[in-house]
User: Fold this.
Amino acid sequence: MNYKDLIKKIDKPKMPRHIAIIMDGNGRWAKLHKTRRINGHKKGVEAVRRTVETAVEVGLEYLTIYAFSTENWARSKAEVDYLLKLIINSLIKEINELIKNNVNIRFIGSKEKLAESYNKKVIKTCKKSWNNTGLHLNVAMNYGGRQELIDAFNEIMFDMKSGKLKKSEIDEDIINSYLYTANMPDSDLVIRTSGEERLSNFLIWQSAYSEFWFTETLWPDFSREEFIQAILDFQDRKRRFGAR
Assistant:
C-alpha cells in the first residue's frame, strides 16, 4: 500500500509524540550490494531524508536519529573520518530545505573528541532553524546513553557543591533537565532496523517506557511505508506504564 494511503489510517490522538530511530545496517547493505561501506552510508543519508520528510508530513513533534555513537570511534580511522564529514556536509546541504519545512534541528551528544571547529560549524548551521516550530529533529552525534548520564550527574554534583541545587530537590524531573534531551518528551517509540533487537546504549533513560518496533530491513532500504506502519502498530498498543 502506498504511504499516502497509510497516512490516512493514522489516528492523530494516538500518534507518538517522540520517535527515536537506531539506523542500523549501512555496512551490511554495502556488503550485500558488493560495494564500499561508504556507499552504504551515502544511501543511509537518503533514508534519513525520506524519514524526516515523512515525519514532517504526518505532523510528528520529535524525531531523534542515532547518527554516531560513542562506540563508533572504534571503527577504522578512514570510516570515522568519512562519517564525520558526511554528517556535517549533509547538515549544511539540507539546512535550507529543513528550514523551509519548519524543522528545528539540534545535535545532541558529547562534545568530547570532536574538533572545536566541527562543533562550532554544527551549532552555527543548526542555529538557523531554531525559530522553527514544526518537527524537532535531534541528531544523536557522538552520543552514548551512559555518557549522557555521567555528564548529567557531574553537572548535578557541581550545582550541589555550588549551592544551586539541594539533594532533597533531586527527582526524575530534575535529572531530566540535565540530560541532552532536556525539555523534550521521552521517546514513545523506538525503531531499529536490520533485524537487531537491542538499544545499543541509545536513550537508555528516555526509553524506560518506550514501545519498540523492529524490522529486518537494512537502514538504506527503510521506506516511508515502513515508517508509517511502525506508527500504525504503535497506536494499536495499550500502554499501561506499570498500571493494570
